[in-house]
């Protein structure tokens, strides 16, 4: 009888342990950029010169550009007119992970003309044709001072105006009218880019726009409150598996504006305590998020601080396989760099100094070069006397490669792994890492 009761209790525990369900989370719209870094898109000159019916007479020089809010349907029209091969179009749709239900043969007004020029030698002017009547005489004028240097431009970029843009949008069922907030920016700042046009006027003017809004929800998961944030790069209305970034912040709200980790993408596993969810889907317009419960794990793997180093494939610059299990029980500092990366090269003397300081302790330094030319990397390492573990991972198609598994996109990046395999530091400055290592190794 006792055995039967025990089996029943064990069975009950098993049922309870697997009673977690998938989550469908409704997301609301929030203004600004939230916990995300600001992103924008360059409006490039058109292949053919664009014209307008009316332009204010006080503008001394200008050019007109066009922004497309739903470019897939512009490309679809080119296919219909025989101006774009269908296989190229299908390749684009696949690459962007676009929902085919948003592709329609109907022609509608899903683009906006933008004028940029000068009203004096000291003032830029930008006008959005937000009512789509091909006239700039009845729209608001945005005036920007012409600045002398990058530093002044970078400062001005912190106080850019927000306008409104109207357009038509196909939502999979019908064509609807939409209005979006638009931030306009005529300054390059530190960006090194030139306009791809033979027109001398087009070459003078630089312009980017972004849509400062994101999706947000406050949600209790496993008895704890989270702020859930989703964004699509702030350069389109549509959300896809290709462009969506997801961030969860414990106790976060709409006013939270700092996040130092790496966002999740569709398909990533999200660990909340010992619960694991797959970020399985986001709706076409970002108003519904789906997290699929995939099980329990007391040692969740991932790329964020607090997660454990996932299983990866790694190769040394001598073409030998490398296994992190051989260094279990040590603090491992992963240094992601490249021979093409100026800041990485500048940091090498400090990395050498850190390595010499902690050499012989419970510590291993492992540099990972994002390069395809292994011989070039070997010559560089020999020349700089980088006499510690050197890996190479330049194949972006390697799904199990350490760069892809840890979502390394900025260089240099340093990731510190504890002896139990947990990531305890990511994206910190080398001085902070040295201080943390010193504290850990002295215990």
Could you walk me through the main structural features you see in this protein, from its secondary elements to its overall organization?
It contains 9 helices and 22 strands. With 443 residues, the protein is an alpha+beta fold. It folds into 3 domains: 22-36 and 213-296, no CATH class; 41-70 and 110-210, no CATH class; 315-441, Glutaredoxin. A 6-stranded mixed sheet has the order 17-20-19-18-21-22. A 4-stranded antiparallel sheet has the order 1-16-15-14, with no helix packed on it. A hairpin with a 4-residue loop joins strand 8 and strand 9 (175-185).
Could you outline the blueprint of secondary structure elements for this entry?
Blueprint lengths: L1 H16 L5 E4 L1 E4 L9 E2 L18 E8 L2 H10 L5 H10 L15 E10 L2 E6 L12 E5 L4 H7 L5 E9 L4 E11 L14 H5 L3 E3 L2 E9 L2 E8 L13 E6 L18 E4 L2 E8 L5 E9 L18 E2 L14 E7 L4 H17 L4 E7 L4 H11 L4 E4 L9 H4 L7 E5 L5 E4 L3 H12 L2
Parallel strand pairs: 18-19, 19-20
Antiparallel strand pairs: 1-16, 2-11, 3-10, 4-5, 5-6, 6-7, 8-9, 9-10, 11-12, 12-13, 14-15, 15-16, 17-20, 18-21, 21-22
Number of domains: 3
How is the main sheet built? 6 strands, mixed
Overall average residue pLDDT: 90
According to DSSP, the number of beta strands is 22
**Beta strand %:** 25-35%
Q: What class would the helix/strand composition place it in?
A: alpha+beta
pLDDT under 50 segments (min length 5)?
1-19
User: Share of helix among residues?
Assistant: 10-25%
In DSSP terms, counting alpha (H) and pi (I) runs of 4 or more, how many helices?
A: 9
The rough form would be described as globular
Rg (C-alpha, Å): 26 Å
Strand order of the largest sheet: 17-20-19-18-21-22
**End-to-end distance, in Å?**
52 Å
């Amino acid at each position: 009888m006792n055995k039967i009761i025990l089996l029943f209790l064990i069975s009950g525990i098993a049922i309870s342990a697997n009673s977690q369900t998938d989550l469908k989370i409704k997301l609301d719209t929030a203004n600004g950029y939230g916990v995300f870094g600001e992103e924008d898109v360059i409006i490039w000159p058109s292949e053919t010169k664009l014209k307008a019916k009316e332009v204010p007479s006080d503008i001394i020089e200008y050019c007109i550009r066009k922004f497309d809010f739903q470019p897939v349907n512009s490309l679809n029209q080119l296919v219909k007119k025989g101006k774009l091969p269908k296989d190229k179009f299908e390749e684009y749709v696949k690459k962007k992970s676009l929902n085919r239900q948003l592709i329609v043969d109907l022609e509608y007004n899903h683009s906006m003309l933008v004028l940029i020029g000068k009203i004096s030698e000291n003032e830029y002017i930008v006008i959005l044709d937000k009512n789509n009547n091909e006239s700039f005489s009845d729209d608001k004028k945005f005036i920007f001072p012409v600045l002398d240097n990058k530093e002044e431009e970078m400062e001005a970029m912190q106080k850019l105006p927000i306008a409104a843009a109207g357009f038509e949008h196909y939502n999979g069922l019908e064509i609807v009218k939409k209005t979006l907030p638009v931030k306009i920016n005529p300054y390059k700042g530190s960006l090194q880019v030139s306009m791809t046009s033979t027109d001398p006027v087009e070459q003078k003017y630089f312009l980017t726009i972004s849509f400062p809004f994101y999706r947000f929800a406050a949600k209790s998961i496993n008895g704890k409150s989270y702020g859930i944030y989703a964004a699509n790069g702030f350069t389109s209305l549509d959300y896809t598996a290709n462009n969506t970034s997801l961030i969860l912040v414990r106790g976060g709200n709409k006013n939270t504006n700092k996040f130092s980790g790496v966002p999740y993408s569709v398909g990533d596993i999200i660990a909340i305590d010992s619960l694991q969810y797959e970020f399985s889907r986001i709706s076409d317009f970002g108003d519904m998020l789906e997290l699929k419960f995939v099980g329990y794990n007391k040692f969740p793997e991932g790329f964020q601080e607090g997660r454990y180093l996932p299983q990866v494939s790694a190769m040394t610059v001598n073409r030998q396989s490398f296994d992190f299990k051989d260094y279990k029980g040590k603090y491992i500092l992963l240094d992601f760099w490249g021979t093409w990366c100026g800041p990485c090269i500048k940091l090498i003397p400090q990395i050498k100094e850190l390595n010499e300081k902690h050499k012989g302790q419970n510590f291993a330094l492992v540099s990972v070069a994002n390069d395809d030319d292994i011989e070039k990397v070997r010559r560089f390492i020999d020349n700089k006397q980088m006499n510690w573990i050197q890996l190479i991972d330049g194949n972006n198609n390697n799904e199990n490669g350490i760069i892809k598994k840890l979502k390394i996109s900025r260089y240099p990046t340093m990731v510190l792994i504890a002896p139990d395999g947990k990531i305890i530091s990511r994206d910190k400055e080398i001085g902070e890492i040295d201080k943390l290592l010193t504290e850990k190794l002295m215990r």
